[in-house]
UniProtKB/TrEMBL annotation, chain A:
Protein name listed in UniProt: Alcohol dehydrogenase, class IV
Keywords: Oxidoreductase
Domain Fe-containing alcohol dehydrogenase-like C-terminal per the UniProt entry, residue ranges: 204-395
Organism: Methanolobus profundi
Pfam families tied to this protein: ADH_Fe_C, Fe-ADH
Automatic annotation (TrEMBL), chain B:
Annotated organism of origin: Methanolobus profundi
InterPro entries linked: BphY/WalK/GraS-like, HATPase_C_sf, HATPase_dom, His_kinase_dom, PAS, PAS-assoc_C, PAS-like_dom_sf
Location within or outside the cell: Membrane
Keywords for this protein: ATP-binding, Coiled coil, Kinase, Membrane, Nucleotide-binding, Transferase, Transmembrane, Transmembrane helix, Two-component regulatory system
Protein name per its UniProtKB record: histidine kinase
């Protein structure tokens, strides 16, 4: 029977379903799907392709292979492959200059989160003729970017399916988010074969990033039944298969499962957004240029403990999904926190932010930046500056 | 930032992230994009209107307009109705895709025009003879301009053609009539001058044989009248030459020096101090300069004549200033027959007026005469 009530925005509800949107790019998933790039670039009317990548991916051979495929389809290719981890605003602006100068009309990003975020931001800057810093925030992208195709080489960032692009403001040593439907790629070519070139460390870091996406979108105060479904399935897949992928990186079936989990988590967080883990990790990444996945992995258990009292049922669902059981224990946050620690241990992620260079005296700066991050808006439990400081201390 | 302020900011973020508000648009549904498309449509409509206007102008104008390719024999791309009428064809289709060279009576004329067009980019008023469908020909005055691609290669030639066949025939008739008149005038003048000389001779003979002072006085008067007939004939000769040659740009300094060659420098100290100018005038302006200088010698008692240039507003003045007695009665200065020795200033004024150049005398009596020749903008330019 339909129930009437009022949702947290004050609008009248006619049932249990919150009114929510769900947005996803066209997704082509499967082994060797990367080889379809030429055909799809043509179908999006591309002629002069701007290929964004990074030196690691170039070395692994994926960038060259994609460029060759594009050239075979009769397309011109301009390669921009110097993107660094945690891409800087300067790299975006330089890329946009090259894009405009060379008269490109379509962007292909091959790589992990960095080249994909950089490529998406380059597109937005090229269309809006502005500085990338002006696009910070939600719905600040006025004009749509040119067509963008993403080919992820890691199983974690999910920039290929998300409306987010995270860029580093190198002047102020902080990361900022560009969140807009216009930041959604037109096509994600998700090819598990590509992820086989990842190092063990990268498998661990990006996999934990995916798990954090699943966790944070599930407990987000903007979640929906659709994002819940993806978040829970992502949690289940990543928890079960990430350790296996770490133990046996050559098992392609296991890699597919992690990739699938990452994509589900991406679809969930792109629509439900994230929370305190990401707000704090962005601040860390901007300040110390540390690996995003590792920051997340370090922070997750502390934020779970902090948020738990606010949404215990949601965390119990996550605990069940992690353990593969249909129901969870009723032991409060301890059991779930224990599972996260166990996973981190398995992945050889040494606990403690001090291991990645965080010092006591950095906490003030880090907390101020985290407090302003839009990801905080959807954290289930509101956090004050003091709360965030305390969490950093706890994670040190 | 105050905690409550940040809470409001975060609430606004959350609403936007949920993405149901007016600011949340999919890639292809941006209102700005819609605006841009609307503006583009408006621009296209305006372009269409403007094209219609030009089309109507090209189709209704009474001057032939064609567009051809510059290479080979010049395929015709477009021809307006006026050009079709000129060539006696029913419509454009009879000319389209045909070689332009076939329209020329002398095909080499087209090649020469193209060569010149390649050099100049645009050429004006060249006479060309076109073949008409019925076998006759027409004379056209054509102007050509070239269109180029982004690499600077000529890709199209626009030709504007005016049928001047009748105009040419009329000017030819006029030229011939003028020649006949000149011939008649020159023969008649020659005959009159001969008769006047004979008359003058007889007058001298008669005067030598007559002693009666009354009759001698009458004969003197006759002599004056005979001289006057001679002057009238000389005037007719000069006047006939005015306007025969087309006006042209001449170098001021060269023309002045040329005109002063026959001035006797022992009778006057001549100072020419003019800047580098060219002036647009009847070539007989030389005569004007000579007249002005020669008048100074004859009538002013001056010792110095200074010729200078001055710019007055937008006008250029060429000034003849002497230090003689000046001119007290300026009223009839430029009138016919005002001069005792002929028609100098009247003729000068006539010569100058052909191209609209003015002349005036502004000197102070007693301090010398000052003649100013006034060139308006467009009648003079600085020499390069």
């Amino acid at each position: 029977m339909a129930m009437k009530g009022v949702d947290d925005n004050g609008s009248v509800m006619h049932g249990t379903l919150m009114t929510r949107k769900f947005l996803a790019p066209e997704i082509i998933l499967g082994d060797d799907s990367r080889e379809l790039i030429g055909q799809y670039a043509l179908s999006l009317s591309g002629k002069n392709i701007f290929l964004v990548s990074d030196p690691g991916v170039v070395k692994a051979g994926w960038t060259g292979e994609v460029a060759d495929n594009l050239a075979s389809a009769g397309l011109d290719v301009v390669t921009y492959d110097k993107v660094t981890p945690n891409p800087r605003s300067k790299e975006v602006m330089q890329g946009a200059d090259v894009y405009i100068d060379e008269g490109c009309d379509l962007i292909v990003a091959v790589g992990g989160g960095s080249p994909m975020d950089c490529g998406k931001a380059i597109g937005a800057v090229a269309s809006n003729h502005c500085h990338v810093l002006e696009l910070e925030g939600v719905d600040e992208v006025q004009f749509p970017a040119p067509p963008i195709i993403c080919i992820p080489t890691t199983a974690g960032s999910s920039a290929d399916v998300s409306q987010f692009a995270i860029i580093t403001d190198e002047e102020k040593k902080r990361k900022f988010a560009i969140i807009s439907k216009a930041m959604l790629a037109d096509l994600a070519l998700i090819d598990p074969v590509i992820t086989t070139s990842m190092s063990l460390e990268l498998i661990a870091d990006t996999g934990m990033d995916a798990l954090c996406h699943a966790f944070e979108s599930y407990v987000s105060n903007a979640s929906s039944v659709i994002t819940d479904m993806f978040a829970l399935e992502a949690t289940r897949l990543v928890s079960e298969y990430l350790p296996k992928a770490y133990d046996d990186p050559d098992d392609i079936v296991v890699r597919e499962k992690v990739m699938l989990g990452s994509m589900y988590a991406g679809l969930a967080f792109s629509n439900a957004s994230l929370g305190l883990v990401h707000a704090m990790a962005h601040s860390l990444g901007g300040y110390l240029d540390s690996a995003h996945g590792e920051c997340n992995a370090q922070l997750l258990e502390h934020v779970v403990a902090y948020n738990y009292p606010q949404v215990p049922d949601r965390y119990r669902d996550l605990e069940a999904a992690m353990s593969g059981n249909s129901s969870s224990t009723d032991s409060g946050p301890d059991s779930l926190v224990g599972m996260i620690r166990g996973l981190n241990e398995h992945l050889e992620i040494e606990p403690g932010l001090s291991n990645i260079g965080v010092k006591e005296e950095d906490i003030d700066f880090l907390s101020h930046n985290a407090l302003l991050d839009p990801c905080l808006a959807t954290n289930p439990r509101p956090a004050t500056l003091e709360d965030i400081e305390e969490l950093y201390h706890g994670a040190l | 930032m105050e905690p409550s302020e940040n809470a409001d900011r975060m609430a606004a973020f959350r609403n936007k992230i949920i993405g149901l508000g007016e600011t949340s648009h999919r890639k292809s549904y941006y209102p700005q994009l819609r605006d841009q498309i609307r503006e583009l449509n408006q621009a296209m409509l305006a372009l269409q209107e403007s094209e219609n206007k030009y089309r109507s102008l090209v189709e209704n104008v009474n001057i032939g307009i064609i567009q051809t390719e510059p290479w080979d024999d010049g395929r015709v791309i477009q021809a307006n109705p006026a050009f079709c009428r000129m060539l006696g064809v029913n419509d454009e289709d009879e000319l389209l895709d045909r070689p332009a060279v076939d329209m020329y009576l002398y095909p080499e004329a087209r090649l020469e025009l193209l060569k010149e067009l390649e050099r100049e980019g645009r050429i004006k008023d060249r006479n060309v003879v076109f073949k008409v469908k019925d076998g006759s020909t027409i004379m056209c005055s054509v102007s050509l301009s070239a269109q180029y691609d982004i690499n600077g290669n000529m890709i199209l030639v626009d030709v504007v053609a005016e049928d001047i066949t009748e105009k040419e025939q009329r000017s030819e008739a006029l030229r011939q009539a003028n020649n006949k008149l000149n011939l008649l005038s020159s023969i008649t003048r020659h005959d009159i001058t001969n008769q006047v000389m004979i008359l003058e001779g007889y007058l001298y003979l008669v005067m030598e044989r007559v002693e009666d002072p009354d009759i001698l006085m009458l004969l003197e008067r006759m002599k004056v009248n005979v001289k006057s007939i001679d002057r009238h004939v000389m005037f007719a000769k000069d006047y006939q030459e005015i306007g025969i040659q087309a006006p042209q740009w001449v170098d001021l300094m060269d023309t002045l020096t040329g005109a002063m060659v026959s001035i006797d420098r022992t009778l006057i100290d001549l100072h020419i101090d003019v800047m580098d100018y060219s002036v647009f005038t009847d070539p007989m302006i030389k005569k004007v300069f000579y007249n002005l200088a020669s008048n100074v010698i004859k009538h002013s008692n001056a010792t110095n004549l200074t010729i200078t240039t001055e710019e007055e507003g937008n006008n250029l003045l060429v000034v003849f200033q002497d230090d003689g007695i000046g001119i007290a009665d300026k009223k009839r200065l430029f009138k016919k027959g005002s001069s005792s020795s002929g028609y100098g200033l009247f003729l000068s004024k006539e010569i100058l007026s052909i191209t609209g150049i003015g002349i005036r005398e502004t000197g102070v009596p007693g301090e010398g005469a000052r003649f100013e020749i006034v060139f308006s903008p467009g009648q003079y330019k600085t020499s390069v």
